[in-house]
Amino acid sequence: MINLNGELTSAVQNNWTNNRSFLYGDGIFDTLKIINHKVLFLEDHYFRLMASMRIVRMEIPMNFTMEYFEAEVIKTAQSNHCANAARVRITFYRDSQGYYTPNQSCVQYVIQAQPLNEKFYKCAEEAYEIELYKDFYLAKNLLSTIKTTGKMIHVTAGIFARENGYQNCLLMNDDKNIVEAINGNLFIVRGHKLSTPPISEGCLNGIMRKNVLQLASKIDGIQVSEEIISPFDLQNADELFITNVIHGIQPVSQYRKKKFTANLSVQLTELINEYIVA
C-alpha cells in the first residue's frame, strides 16, 4: 500500500510509483509535430533521440527503428483523432528497480498526442515580453543539450515569468551568458547577422534551431553564426526570436525598455512553411 494524497491505495494499481522518470528524473523526452499524418523533421528527431539515449546510457530497444518510431507516433495520433495536426510527446524512462543506480538499463516509453489548431507556422504579432531568469543557472555540459525529464530550472523560470507578467524568460549558464528560453532556442539579429548560442554553452540541441540555421544561411545578405551571447548583446539587437518545433518562430517584442522588429522572423517562417510543403 502507498499513501496517495491522503488515501491508502494499492501500489500495484499505480505503476508510476516505480517509474524512474518520476522518482529520479531518469528519463528523456521529445516533442514532435505531425501534419497530414507525417512527422515533421522525422530523421532529425529520431537521431537526436538515439543520441540522447546513448548519452544517458539507456539500452536502446533493438526493434526501435526509425520506421517503428514513426509508425507508433502516427498510430497514437490517429487513435486520438488528431493525425492531421498534432503535438506529440514521447518519453523514455528506465524500466528497472534500484535507487540512484538502476539494476538494469532497459527502457519503456509513453507516447501522448493532442490536437493542434494550426497545421502550419504563423509568426505571432502580439506583444511578447521577456526577462532574464537569475535564480538558477544551467550547466555547460552535454546533459543540458538534451531533453531530460529533470527540467526544474525551466519550470521555476516559467512560474517566475507568469508571476511577473512576462511571456517568457531567458536562462543563463554559470558564466552568466545567455543559453536559451524556457521553451526553445534563442536567436538574435544585429544588422545582417543572425546569431545563436553554441551547443557548448549548454543550450538544447534543438531541431528547429538546426533547420533555422540551415535556411537562414541560404538567404542573401544574412550572415549566420553560433557565438556566445551576453545580456548586454540583447540591448544591442535589432530582433530577437525563440524557436521550437511546435510554434516555429516566436518573435520577441520587448526586453526591458528595448523593443524589437520581426522582419527576419516573418521571412524565416515563410521559408519553413515552404520547406514543409515541398
How many strand elements? Answer: 16
SSE class: alpha+beta
Shape: globular
- Give the percentage of residues in beta strands: 25-35%
* Spatial extent as radius of gyration: 20 Å
Mean pLDDT: 93
* Contiguous helical run count: 7
Q: Which sheet architecture does the biggest sheet show?
A: 5 strands, mixed
- Write the element-wise H/E pattern from the N-terminal end onward: EEHEEHHEEEHEEEEHEHEEEEH
Helix percentage range? 25-40%
Poorly predicted regions are: none
State the end-to-end CA separation: 55 Å
| Oligomeric state, counting identical vs distinct chains | single chain
Strand sequence of the main sheet, in spatial order?
Answer: 9-8-7-15-16
